[in-house]
Design brief:
Elements lengths: L17 E7 L2 E6 L4 E8 L2 E7 L23 E5 L3 E6 L2 E6 L5 E5 L4 E13 L6 E8 L5 E4 L13 E4 L16 E2 L2 E6 L2 E7 L5 E5 L6 E6 L5 E6 L3 H12 L13 E2 L7 H14 L5 E4 L20 H10 L3 E6 L3 E2 L5 H9 L13 E3 L2 E4 L6 H9 L2 H7 L3 E4 L19 E2 L6 E2 H24 L6 E3 L2 E2 L7 E3 L7 H15 L6 E2 L1 E2 L8 H11 L6 E2 L15 H16 L1 H14 L4 E3 H4 L13 E3 L3 E3 L9 E6 L3 E4 L5 E3 L2 E6 L7 E4 L3 E4 L13 E7 L3 E9 L13 E10 L2 E9 L8 E7 L7 E4 L2 E3 L3 H7 L1 E5 L4 E5 L1
Parallel strand pairs: 13-29, 19-20, 19-33, 20-21, 21-25, 25-28, 28-30, 30-31, 32-33, 43-47
Antiparallel strand pairs: 1-2, 2-3, 3-4, 4-18, 5-6, 6-7, 7-8, 8-9, 9-10, 10-17, 11-14, 12-16, 14-15, 15-18, 16-17, 22-24, 23-24, 26-27, 34-35, 35-36, 36-41, 37-40, 38-39, 38-41, 42-43, 44-45, 45-46, 46-51, 47-50, 48-49, 48-51
Bound molecules: alpha-D-glucopyranose.
Length: about 800
Amino acid sequence: MITNTELEYKGNLYPSKIVSYTHDVDSVYFYTDNSVILKLTVLRDSLIRFRYTTKGYFSNDFSYAIDESHSHGYNHLKVTEEEDYYQVTTNKVICKIQKADLRSFIYDLKGNVLLEDELGFHWEECYEFGGNIVKMSKTSREGECFYGLGDKATQMNLKGKRVENFATDQYAYQKDQDPLYKVVPFYIGLHNKQAYGIFFDNTFRTFFDFCQERRNVTSFWSDGGEMNYYFFYGPSMNDVVTSYTDLTGKPELPPLWALGYHQCKWSYYPESNVKEVAAKFRELQIPCDAIYLDIDYMEGFRCFTWNKEYFPDPKRMVSELSADGFKTIVIIDPGIKIDKEYWVYKEALANDYFCKRADGPYMKGKVWPGECNFPDYTNPEVREWWAGLFKELISDIGVKGVWNDMNEPAVMEVPNKTFPNDVRHNYDGNPCSHRKAHNIYGTQMARATYHGVKRFAYPKRPFIITRSAYSGAQRYTSSWTGDNVATWEHLWIANIQVQRMSISGMGFTGSDIGGFAEQPTGELYARWIQLGVFHPFCRTHSSGDHGNQEPWAFDEEVIDITRKFVNLRYQLLPYLYTMFWQYIEEGTPMLKPLVYFDQEDIQTHYRNDEFIFGNQILVCPILEPNALGRRMYIPRGEWYNYWTNCLVKGGKEMWVDTKFDEIPLFVKAGAIIPKYPVQQYVGELEFDELTLDVYYKEGKEKSVVYEDAQDGYDYKKGRFSFVTFQMTGKEKELNIQVHKEGKFDTNYSKYKINFIGLPFEVKTIEIDNVEITFDANELKENQYLIVPKDFNVLHIVG
Ligand code: GLC
């Protein structure tokens, strides 16, 4: 690691003056005297790629992160030459490249500085490995803030932090510990209320320094590979993140059940134990959709085998669980036990699919099964083979999802916890060492798993979860935050990690609710589930060596709190599904940190705890024991306290009272929140009404609801329902305009409309300009109205 001030560091080399340039369609090449080339590519008016080489030519251009189907195309691109610089102008930005030293400066069209090179691109020869340590430094301005970077367990705003990206099995990590399991070399800068983004697409170990080493400098570097980064212009954080997510890809919709509650432990076995746990959920009426089998279901931890003593007939068990609404999810790790009698090992060996050391022998390492070899998932042929291995699990046995773990890759009993650097990888035909492939290994495993599960689950949708991931992994898989601990500090960490993952393109994420290591108190578990139900992925998991972590491991009060919050999640499923739809369609993060929600309000820039769930629900967890309320920041606008329906004006920090069975929850005034009835699992009930909680507001607000068949791919053929509700509230009037898109007709025929905060007594109601009769007393008493769903305008007058 470089610790001395880079400026003083004598080993650095810099580009010399530009001697020529060429312009080729969307790319401009600048050549320097000392063989440096900068290739500047305009992908979109607001998205520019900077790629550098010091060799005088570029190597094959290959990235696992970039989604082939990302949108590109610009409206305007002009290159001009001035005395001291070249200027590249698009419809959104101006980029100046200085002739003397190749430094770049980016401005908006009004001439405001967006991002300036400090030293810019420079490098150092890497004596240990050969090649270059590639470096970039940018000038940072007063008040600039930084966000993103995936699963970092540190405050939201990264200003003053130095972080490292190297996928690591980090059992019981602590606050500020780094590196962790995932690698997302993407950050958002915010200055003068304008946002931009940087994605440093380099899979080697990378580092970012956000004004830690030097107060006014941000830098990023890597001990190998290319200086290759993308610049995203905002000006809103939403522009930056949606554009990053478009570039690195969006997932398909998960089956709706995957948004239900999941229960996991290391491990549920034998079969009778799995059944007991499942039955208890139904008995206690706590909704649950998925149950997990951790490594002990296997025969000696051999992937794709079953321990027949514990699970004599997996197919029968899985189908019995399924009859009760439980989907079975199994773990699959990358380590393949070295065992000449084991069919998976034999196949891989026969086909030469394992990773090798530089001098030829297979890479060997200890994981759960003992000595293992490891498939090279960066080889397309290996991925295809791996995908095929899921046939029995998915098609025959009926498993519905696969959990990929230990794929950093983790190796036990070695100091570096992973493969040696010299291990060779195919890297899709770009052979390289483990230094380059390490950070992408987990993603390629999850990718192969995804293709297998998808193939055999068809026409249903697959569900995959991974521990390690690199940018772009969201196309294939959901993720969790790894081996956390049952402490209050970890509840704080989980809240930040999931928000951060959300604005780093990987929103389908959650933490091990209650903590993986150690035993939570009932209070901690309750506070954790109260937050966890607002995370896109919602699963309790624990290491199991300290006791139980099912809701009934705690007292009645905690059981009731768990039920209350899991029920709420199931009621909010259409709302959650809608935000997922916006994520896969637009790349919009499902959780929005306050700064993301309102970047213009500088009060939000250093907030950590509060976030917006979807677009209209403000959530703030309780992160301390014995707290019956807390101070929190309410963003600008008007908000209804979900529990009391009292209206508060935001833009201020305030104390919010809660009980033990509540956390601060607020709904944006004007919101229309869709709700399903509580079901014990997705699809349990048929119902004829969609509940709409209508939060009155004087003024306008738009709400949307996405629905489809909840599984399968018909939605891709337009069989979905996307309903927009436009509310307009006046002093004595409320108008709801409905607009429907899509070819899917929902099963229910009515809306049950709950009015919240209506400031007048209803005198008349018109549906599509026809006055309807209604029981005024009844409405006054209960504040709800049931109407057939097929209307265009509901008009209420007081
Ligand atoms: C790892 C995982 C954990 C799992 C355990 C056993 O520690 O992170 O979730 O339960 O391995 O498979």
